[in-house]
Structures are given as C-alpha cells and as structure tokens.
Design a protein that fits this description.
Strand order of the largest sheet: 6-5-4-7-8-11
Number of domains: 2
CATH architecture of the largest domain: 3-Layer(aba) Sandwich
Low-confidence stretches: 38-42
Distance between the termini: 49 Å
Shape: elongated
CATH topology of the largest domain: Rossmann fold
Strand content: 25-35%
Oligomer: single chain
Mean pLDDT: 82
Order of helices and strands: EHEHHEEHEEHHEHEEEHEHEHE
Number of strands: 13
Length: about 325
Amino acid sequence: MTLAAPLWLLLLLPLAALFWRERRLKEHDAALRLPQNNAHYGGTTWRTGAHRWLMPMRWAALGCLVVAMARPQKTWVQEKVKADAIDIVLTLDISPSMLSRDFEPDRLAVAKRVAIDFVEKRPHDRIGLVAFSAEAFTQCPLTTDRRVVQAFIRELQTGRLEDGTAIGMGLATAVNRLKDSPSRSKIVILLTDGENNAGYISPLQAAEIAQSLGVRVYTVGIGTEGIVMSPARRLPDNTYAYAPRYMTFDTELLRQIAQMTEGKYYRAYSEADLKDIYDEIDRLEKTKIEVSTVRRTTDYFHWLIGVAVVLLSLEILGRWWILRTVTM
C-alpha cells in the first residue's frame, strides 16, 4: 500500500484540536448546558457517556478525509515474459559402470544431482530426458515443467535395461525427440562413462543425423580412468558385486561427436568438475527473454471518504437530535 501524496495536512489536526480546546474552555466559563431530557443530578446516564464520543468522531472523520486526500493506493505489477526458448534433451548413461565408486556415492548419483540443479536454472526452456545402457528409451518427453523432469531424473537407476553402453542409441533417441521441434536452438547434453559397445546405430551415425537436423551435442565424459571399484556382476536380487576393475574411456569418440555437431566435449573427474561443466553449458546456451511490465493501480480513498461521511453523519445526528443540549 502506497500514498500518491504526502500526509502533511495530518500535522494540522493537533493544532486544530488545541485551538478547539481553548475555545471550548472559554465557552464553558460563560455557558450553562442543560440536557434535552432532565437527568438526576449527580448521576450518569447513557447520554452523558455517549456525548463524550461526539468530538472524537468528528476528529476521526477529519483524519479520514486528510488520509483520503493523500490517495492511498495499491499497485499491482504483472510481468509478461516472452522467451525464445531452447529445447534441451539430457541423455544419461545408466549402465552398471555408472555405479563405480570413484564419486561419492557413485557416478550416477552425482550425475543425477548435478542434472537436477541444471534443470532448476532453466525455467523457460523445454527439457526432455533420455536414458541408455545397451538400449535407450525416453524417460521424459520435452516439457517446460521442471518439477516433472527433476522427478524423472531422481527415478533413474541401473538394471532396467540390458547391460552395455550404446552411445549411438542414446544420441539417436535424443535427436528423435528434437527432430520436430520448432525451436531455433536444439541441444543434447550426452553424459557417459565408457566406450560404445552395444546398439545397432553407431555414435557417428547418430552424430550425422544430429548434424543434419541442426542439433548441437555437448558430450560429457564422467569418471576416472584406471583401477576403480566397479560392479563386476549382477546378483540374483538385482544388486551388484563390486570388484576393482580397470576402466577405459573413448575420449576421441566423444570429442568427434561434439565437433561434428558444433558442440563441445568436456571431461569430469569430480563432482566439482561436473558442476562447472553444466554451468558453462548454461552460460553458452542462454535463453533470450523479453519481459514487459504492466502496472495497475487501485485507489482506496473512496472507502475513507465513506467512513468520514458515516462518522460525521452520526456526530451531527447525535449532537443535534439524540444528544441535543441547550446552552444558556
């Protein structure tokens, strides 16, 4: 709530009250007031009690009028956002090797955590989610509902598909989600921790499809090379037995995919590295936003005038009719 004009007139009310008090004292010395109806001397009636409220009502009415002259109002601000949105498909490797424990607690948990933070920063973009191991599937189609995407990311887990790493299948599935997109900027963020060893579409074939459709691919390699505690075999209860394994990585393949599609290749050896990578992609792929602001003002002075009119009416009614006195 704001005021359109200052309340300096309110400062005159105390001066007016002092002037009125001095005048009433002088009149009181020279006048004798008799009530309209006789009352018992020395007694107190409802009329004498009510009479004390007449002047406060007048001053309250004047105060309301002064505040009304200052025009109290409330301003409503409405923002209309026009965004040249970007379509993004997050493509995450969920093969068993993503459970390797060179990250805390494992690679997949960290990848999910950082991806959720990335989605939170993109309120105007459409984001989809593709998961892959030896096969690939769309976990979430393109949507502007960040909460839905984040919920699907949290649900990702290994063991739903056959073991393996089909990078080409994952990329082709992501590109398929973008092929009919009307957006002028379409990107895929592909995260994996290993070499392509499955799938009937090769990574380079998928990259050629992305290139022909104008899809830019950012490839992210996660994990360290060398001896790592990693799942060695799947147990009957669908958990994994861990053992030290020598992990390899096809850096050249991911770099080639990024170059073919005018994207960029990144390498993450820690959670901090992965956060920095997503932050850089966030800066590179900025959404153009136009914000138009509409202001609407609602005045409330008429309510104060209404209160003042009611108070003055009651004061006049009481003074000259119900509580009328005769001055002698």
